[in-house]
Automatic annotation (TrEMBL):
Domain NFACT RNA-binding positions: 1-115
Pfam families linked: NFACT-R_1
Protein name per UniProt: NFACT RNA-binding domain-containing protein
Organism: Chlamydomonas reinhardtii
PANTHER family, per database record: COILED-COIL DOMAIN-CONTAINING PROTEIN 25, DUF814-RELATED
InterPro entries with a match to the protein in the record: Jlp2/Ccd25, NFACT_RNA-bd
Protein family: Belongs to the CCDC25 family.
Amino acid sequence: MVFYFYPRCHAPNTEDFMIYMGKDKYENEDLIAHGLPCDLWFHVDDMSSAHVYLRLPDGCDMRDIPAEALEDCAQLVKQNSIQGCKTNNVTIVYTPWSNLKKTAGMEVGQVGFHDPALVLKVKVDRKNNEIINRLEKTRQERHPDLAAEKEVYMSQDEYMVSNKELKDKYASVEEMEDDFM
């Protein structure tokens, strides 16, 4: 089961800037395995916590996240940490899903990073009940087929070709049409 939340900057009727997290460490394993390249992963630094993900829209980089979405994710991950929810001045780490590294010897739900330089940090001074309460009102519980969702997403990118790639490959529109047919 996966919990979905909508931050302040969420675009209605899209998955842009949608927050989601697993129910427990076993659910986190599925989320780690089936994340998407457009997902960011959030966790309380050096403490046990939920794995919270933020789905970015096409063309958005992790450095372009609206401040409201970043704050919502940080508050949610802090709230869902047994130690972190009781502690002030908690550091939250976040990184692209593709930077998560899972090796055979790791515990369930544990991850490392391929490139530590891609891990950013944000400090949460204290819990903000207004943000948590607003997010909880948007919470939806779903049972998605994460593998199937990933397959659909990845198959869409497989056939996407930029205009520059087409220009480099074909001398004319007619040549491209001949190749297409």
